[in-house]
Amino acid sequence: MKALVISGGGSKGAFAGGVAHYLMKDLGRDYDMFLGTSTGSLLVPHLAAHDIGKLYNIFTNVQQHDIFSVSPFVQRKKGDREFVSIDFVNSLWQFIRMKRTFGESKSLKRNIRRNFTKEEYDKIRATKEDVVVTVSNLSMNRVEYKSIREYSYEEFCNWIWISCNYIPFMSLAKVDGYEYADGGLGCVIPIREAILRGATEVDAVVLEAEQMERSKVLGKNPFSLMLNLFGHLLDQVEKNDIVIGKLAAKNKGVKLNLYYTPTNLTENSLIFSKRLMTKWWAQGYEYAKAKHESSTTAE
After folding, report:
1. 254-263 exposure pattern, b = at least 16 Cβ within 10 A, e = fewer
2. Tens digit of pLDDT for each residue in 151-205?
3. Nearest residue to 262 via CA among 18, 29, 40
4. CA distance 94 to 295
5. What are phi and psi of 146, to 5 degrees?
6. DSSP secondary structure code for residue 264 in this structure
7. β-strands 2-6, 33-37: how paired?
């Protein structure tokens, strides 16, 4: 049973879309199971429905207002470069309203239901083994995996949204008395979960460079420094997930193919730029193509 697993990574999900585009369209790989965390959770339902054209249009046209109902960031351009700073007015307004997060992502919740239809949900349940998204149950201090086979259309759309809620910059959600947030806070790339669910071959897209040692410019205010800190912690979780995934694959005799980004794509993956995401999709496609052609040549 083949599985496609996609890590968290915000706007870098466009790169994963390009990788999946090559694997599914050009190589003709047919996956039985799809697992994702955060932005991976947005990708996997559309990939399971095999509508890559629609996914490309969604990911290369998304803007800040499609994600944030209250954005904690301000985006500025200087020449060809894009800079990000904290929107102190919105953040202060959140404090005045006694909210626990700097931003809100209710726009994303609406967009998920608009772009992922009930017909696609039914098609996946009829044709695929499983689609699974990762969430963090903060109340119980544990990671949970939500299967499309265990929830109604409305409930599953809600879990996709929750999987993407990168707190404290996005919404904190409550379900059945428990508070949930981004699955990446506990598991950035669920390779081991795919193996536990019966996968015998796994293609895993890691939205980070394989060699993550690089010099970062730390934030000049508490908010941007917090963003840097969260990024550092998630890098460590991701490294651990990959090690555990490799060990699980070795112990179970599972073939594991890892696809990393060739470079560090961005310092702030919560900023959504059409220009950059179109570029990253093309980079993902070309990277997967080059990786496959080099492995074929070596054989």
Report:
1. bebbbbbbee
2. 999 999 999 999 999 988 899 999 999 999 999 999 999 999 999 999 999 999 9
3. 18
4. 51
5. -105, 115
6. -
7. parallel
